[in-house]
Design goal:
By secondary structure, the chain is of the alpha/beta class. The chain has five helices and twelve strands. A seven-stranded mixed sheet has the order 2-1-3-4-12-11-10. The longest helix has 20 residues, at about 185-205. It has a single domain, classed as Rossmann fold (3-Layer(aba) Sandwich).
Length: about 200
C-alpha cells in the first residue's frame, strides 16, 4: 500500500467495525478504529458503522464525540454512515428519539424493513459507483429508509419503500451494509470522495 494513501477512521463504539476495516484495506487505504475523540486527529475520512443507533448515540455522548464529529463534518472531512450510521448522521429522524448529529439533509425512518428476522439481501443499482449498471448485492439488517431528501442531496439508490443511499456534499449515507459483501465498489466510491477532499485541501494551502 502506498504511503500517501488516505487514513480512514471507523467509529469503534459498536457494530461492524472490523468488516469496514477489511474493506478499507482492500481498497488500498489505511483503516483505523476510533475509540476516543483524539483518534479523529489525522483521519482523512470517517465511517460510522451499523449497530444499534440508540446505543451508539448514547456512547457518542458518553465518550464526548459529539462536538468532535460535528467539527469534523463542518471542516469538510468526508463521512459515511451505514444503517445505524445513517440514523446517527441524519438531520431528521422519525420517532421519539430524534436526530443525534443532524449532519445530512435527509429524513430517516428507523426499522423501515422490519425486525432482525426480516433481514434480506437485494440487488440495487447504485449511481456513481464503478460499473454502476451492474447491480450491487445490498444487505439490509433492521434497516432504516430515507423518506425525504433536501434539495441539494443526490439520490444514489432506492427501493420501493424509499431511498437507500444518498450523498449530501461530504456526507455519504446508506441504509444497507456494503461492508458485509465482497463488493468494494461502495467503499471505493467513498475513498474517491476522500481523495478529492484531500486534493481540494492541498489546492487551498
Amino acid at each position: 500500500m502506498a504511503g500517501n494513501e488516505p487514513t480512514i477512521g471507523v467509529l469503534a463504539l459498536q457494530g461492524a467495525v472490523a468488516e469496514h476495516l477489511v474493506m478499507i484495506e482492500a481498497c488500498g487505504a489505511r483503516g483505523v478504529g476510533v475509540k476516543r475523540p483524539s483518534g479523529l486527529d489525522g483521519v482523512n475520512g470517517l465511517i460510522i458503522p451499523g449497530g444499534e443507533s440508540t446505543t451508539v448515540g448514547k456512547l457518542i455522548d458518553e465518550y464526548g464525540f459529539g462536538n468532535a464529529l460535528l467539527e469534523l463534518g463542518a471542516a469538510g472531512v468526508p463521512m459515511f454512515g451505514t444503517c445505524a450510521g445513517l440514523i446517527i448522521m441524519a438531520g431528521r429522524v422519525e420517532g421519539r428519539h430524534g436526530p443525534v448529529l443532524g449532519l445530512a439533509d435527509v429524513t430517516v425512518r428507523r426499522n423501515a424493513f422490519g425486525r432482525q428476522v426480516d433481514s434480506f439481501e437485494e440487488d440495487v443499482i447504485v449511481r456513481g459507483i464503478e460499473d454502476e449498471s451492474r447491480p450491487f448485492g445490498a444487505v439490509f439488517i433492521r434497516a432504516p429508509v430515507i423518506e425525504e431528501v433536501g434539495a441539494g442531496v443526490e439520490v444514489m439508490a432506492r427501493l420501493e419503500k424509499g431511498v437507500v443511499m444518498a450523498r449530501d456534499g461530504n456526507y455519504l449515507t446508506s441504509a444497507f451494509h456494503p461492508e458485509l459483501t465482497g463488493d468494494t465498489r461502495v467503499h471505493d466510491y467513498f475513498l474517491r470522495m476522500v481523495r478529492e477532499s484531500i486534493s481540494e485541501r492541498d489546492m487551498e494551502v
